[in-house]
Give the backbone structure.
Amino acid sequence: MNGLLTTFQQALQLLLAGDQELWTIVFLSFSVSLKAIIITTPLALLLAFALTHGKFAGIRIILTFINSLQAVPTVVIGLFLYVLLSRQGPFGDLRLLFTQTAMVVGQMLLCFPILVALGYAAIKTVDRRVWETARTLGAPVWFSMLTVLYEVRFGLVAAVLTSFGRVISEVGISMMVGGNIMGYTRNITTAIALETSKGEFAQGIALGLVLLTLAFLLSVLLSYLQGSKEFSR
Amino acid sequence: MKEPLFLFRGINKTFAESQVLLNVDISLCQGNCILLSGKNGTGKSTLLKIIAGLEIPDVAEIVISGKSESWKKTITEVRKAIIYLHQQPLLFSGTVEANIAYGLRFTSLNIKQRSESVKTALAWAGLTKLAKQQANTLSGGVQQRVAFTRAWILKPKVLLLDEPMANMDHESRIQACNLLLRMKSAGMSIVITSHVLQYFDGLADQHFKLKHGRLETAKVSKKKESPAA
Ligand SMILES: Nc1ncnc2c1ncn2[C@@H]1O[C@H](COP(=O)(O)OP(=O)(O)O)[C@@H](O)[C@H]1O
Ligand SMILES: [Mg+2]
């Protein structure tokens, strides 16, 4: 019991003293996950928009596919990417295995179906007349699309935050294709999973606290957005 | 009659299995007002939306200055001159002012001209005091006025009004009619759908009835003389 308390104190000390190793890990996590979200969001919203406003065959099939992709465990995404990027794999020449780029790509694969599904659910609530009105008032296709997205901006921000929470807390992909190299690919989750097993409890707890704080902040923001969404109509 | 701005020819449209429009021809002329009547679900809205480029016909042609082209090929150009107004207007989230200014950013006007134009339009519609209000919080009648002003400010050659008087009281109907008369005499081509005909006495020059997918010519009542003329 006493030992646990001491470890906890050490964890707080690490956090508050601005331990360089610890904050490098935190920064890396945010950097990788933000990149993944920023690159994926426009692509995912474009697809979500096409699925709600387009008239083409196969919309249902794509939706079903997107939904089943969401159920793929992160280690399986990691494994899949590992095979593609390994020396003998089709993209082996790119030498991307155990790099941040590989982690970004893996997290993009993870958040793409989530963003499409949440984006689709949000955009589907927009009245079709928004699109028609924008078009008939002379707006080009891309601007009409932004007009539609703007009508559900709260829902879309919520979708992005949810996806961010999901990618920054995943461990399977980062472990498989990142490799937990200190200062290069070690992020919060791989540090907790792999360093704790070596007895580095204090660091693990400190990083855990960072993740918990983030999760808490995200859910506060989300419920705030939920409120705005209900009052804005 | 003058040479039409646009002549839409041979419009056909099917939804699933049912043929809604069957070889419909309609010609839009300057300073001319067409009244389009027909029971609910006969395809009036669909026809207007095809003319506005918002719905895709199975086949259709557009004749401009004697030259005939497919709908697909020409609609991108043609729709720039045409504005469709929904039966229930939809205002974007934002202020009244922002709604009215919406379409101006796609014109060649610069920022200063645009804000001048918005100011004039707000005054014209009696909306100056409401300019900074959130558009979606206003009453139905005012929302309709905002939607109308948002279209009027763009000076379209053709205005398509889908059941414009459906939710208006008698007073507003007379006002709206007078307004449309003025716009007509300024050279605008107007198409109005409605199943109540007497609202448009003195405004409509032609009256068509949509029945079983075909456009039938019907009588125009010209009891009133146009007060603005
Ligand atoms: N997007 C659509 N999908 C399927 N059917 C439609 C669609 N829009 C209209 N319809 C059908 O086409 C017919 C004509 O509709 P509409 O043009 O709205 O008629 P009106 O405006 O004269 O009441 C109706 O039977 C309606 O059910
Ligand atoms: Mg209708």
Summary: Residues B 15, 20, 38, 40-46 surround adenosine-5'-diphosphate (ligand 1) (CB under 6 Å). The longest strand of chain B covers residues 18-28.
